[in-house]
Amino acid sequence: MDKRVNVFLNSLSLQVVVALIVGSLLSNTFKYHAKMFIIVLMSFLVLVVPIPLFLFKPRWPLNALIPGIVACAFIRLFGVEYEIRGQEHINVRNGGVVLLNHQSAIDIVMLSRLLREFRNIVPVVKKELFYMLPFGIASYLVGVVFIDRKNTASAKDVMKREAVAITKDHLKLAIFPEGTRHDNDTLLPFKKGSFHVAIDSQSIIQPVIVSKYHFIDHKRKRFGRGRVIIKIMPEIPTKGMTKADVNELTDRCQQLMQTEFDALSAEAKQYCHN
């Protein structure tokens, strides 16, 4: 009986592998869904497997360093590579807020690539991700900050605590000011929470612009090969600013990031193939 089961499982595994290969060759839609699923699953696994090691130093951002290197190497096999510019603008001794544009679920790999440059950066994400066990536990152990977007008072309390951590631990909070991911050519209006945090802590804001993922077309279900250009901009100090400066600061950062996003996206397009 055991022998029959083994033969059946081996045969089933072979059929699945063949189906994946044939499906990828014949259908771009299948390839799109398969790539997205595998990349997200891989990102989860590389973070979850080392959980026992994270327990030696919980809430340490560099816990995610090795998993991030593995994730970037893996996604390169799918034809996606990252080019980082502006590393000279990074000051690891400064805590603050890092602003990023948000495009896709695979931004998780982009964040892991940035960890190698910043070393003290932690993402701020929606609280619901914490309950995706065991991924949520692994994320907590590498320092990810969870906020409840539906509870404004709770979110503000969390961000006030993180404003203290910015000063005390020199952390940089990676925040998507648009609030949700999209693949438009124009950035969505920025929410003001990240700017309040920076001013409350009298720290810096550092815009980081990620070129458009031309190699992914969510509407046509295409996932090809391409290069992602990430540009780290100079720090913007908020020392001396007050709540009255939030609107002006928000508009300034939005315009700066949109201009750079347009330029980087136009350049990256030549390296992308669907």
From TrEMBL:
CDD domains referenced in this protein's UniProt entry, alphabetically: LPLAT_AGPAT-like
Record field: catalytic activity: a 1-acyl-sn-glycero-3-phosphate + an acyl-CoA = a 1,2-diacyl-sn-glycero-3-phosphate + CoA
Domain of life of the native organism: Eukaryota
GO cellular component: a single term: endoplasmic reticulum
Pathway(s) of this molecule: Phospholipid metabolism; CDP-diacylglycerol biosynthesis; CDP-diacylglycerol from sn-glycerol 3-phosphate: step 2/3
Keywords associated with the record: Acyltransferase, Lipid biosynthesis, Lipid metabolism, Phospholipid biosynthesis, Phospholipid metabolism, Transferase
GO molecular function: 1-acylglycerol-3-phosphate O-acyltransferase activity
Cross-referenced Pfam families: Acyltransferase
Domain notes: The HXXXXD motif is essential for acyltransferase activity and may constitute the binding site for the phosphate moiety of the glycerol-3-phosphate.
Family as reported in the entry's similarity comment: Belongs to the 1-acyl-sn-glycerol-3-phosphate acyltransferase family.
Name of the featured protein: 1-acyl-sn-glycerol-3-phosphate acyltransferase
Species in which this protein is naturally found: Anopheles stephensi
